[in-house]
Amino acid sequence: MNHMKRWIRWTPLVAALVLAGCATALPPVEDRQLPATPAAFKETDGRWARATPAEAQPRGEWWKSFGDAELDRWVEQAAERNTSIQQAAARLAQARALARSADANRAPQVGVGAGVSRQAGANNNGDVNTLATAGLTLSYELDLFGRLSQASQAAALDAQAREALLQSARLLVQAETAQTYLALRVLDAERELVRDTVLAYRDTLRLTERRQQAGDIAELDVARVRTEVAATESEALALDQRRAVLEHALAVLVGEAASSFEVAPQAWSASLPVIPPGVPSTVLQRRPDVSAAQRSMLAAQARVGVAQAAWFPSVSLTAQGGYASPEVGDLFRWSMRSWGIGALLSLPVFDGGRRQAGVDSARAELDGALAGYREQVLVAFKDVEDQLSTLRLLADQAEAQSRAVESATRATTLSNSRYRNGFVSQLDLLDAQRTELRNRRQALQVRAAQYQATVGLVRALGGGWNAGA
To answer: Which residues form the signal peptide (predicted)?
Structure first.
């Protein structure tokens, strides 16, 4: 009979344990909720290599494939001194600390305490009693329903997401530093071209002035050449202004003050690397932002379990041992020792809907994280396709522009010779010179776009493809 009574007494707790095993199961993420991975990139043409990198592997020093020692120096300095990277590293350190804090809740908690109290009241006839205590306390919460383990798992996943975001910040800063530096070098080449054109126009102006003084041509022709000289000088100054802005932007990226930062102009010697994008599935493994979105989704999934576990009782074991004495001087006598053990079961009954609201909030967070992950995956594929198509079209454009420059240069040479011999007008010469300048600048801009798209492809693929990357 007593055995039956004990069984009946424990039946509610056993039932709660059984129900908890069902209720705290994490909601599944179905395949249909995630975007399908394409079998191949639309822009591939058979040249691209298949690779099998992983998200956790280093990205390699991909910027060195451009063969520019100064670019290498600025990217490496940005990795050490860029403030965005430092902020991401601090957020990662904070997330790891929070993960350790959440994991610490699963371990026994031990404390040391001591105290002295004096008490007087009706129960002791007005006498003043003293009680001195000293000892250890131990508490441990049984994780019967997975609340603590799931909270620890969610915090660990948050830390992993922050680690991926730190890697994403590094890649972003590397790419922006490379693109800014390469754009600055393009402007150096363009400025040199425009200045050479100004010198050519000035030679034409001197020739035109001599012919006007000799009475061969009218003053109108001189005014036209002077206009071209002034307009081209204005364009050179505009390029100087754009270069200054890029130089200041590079200073911020490498962690220096713009007021004391300077990049001396020099010849543009960087080579254009060819980077194989692999297959679409590797992008999902390598892109740190995709990895961060995935970890955030899994953390949100774990928090649904934490919210569900709030419906079930928590069981804590406690123990204490030490000394208690009415006299401080007798506190540590062996006869004054004391101890105690206990178990505490806490089961919420009515909370006005707070726990259900917590479950609903966690599920909504999971839905948002799922949508964010899907979006990040789709954006990753879009970024790669954008850069692949851009590089393909720019290669064709560069070839066509090269032919245009060659023809324009030949036309200028012929026009200059015919003008000096009086066979064509000064307007014909100016038109040929303008056409050549426009085409040369356009060729530089196409080349610059190829460099920018190459860096963009590296970023879209999640890093370089060198050995060990």
So the answer is: 1-25
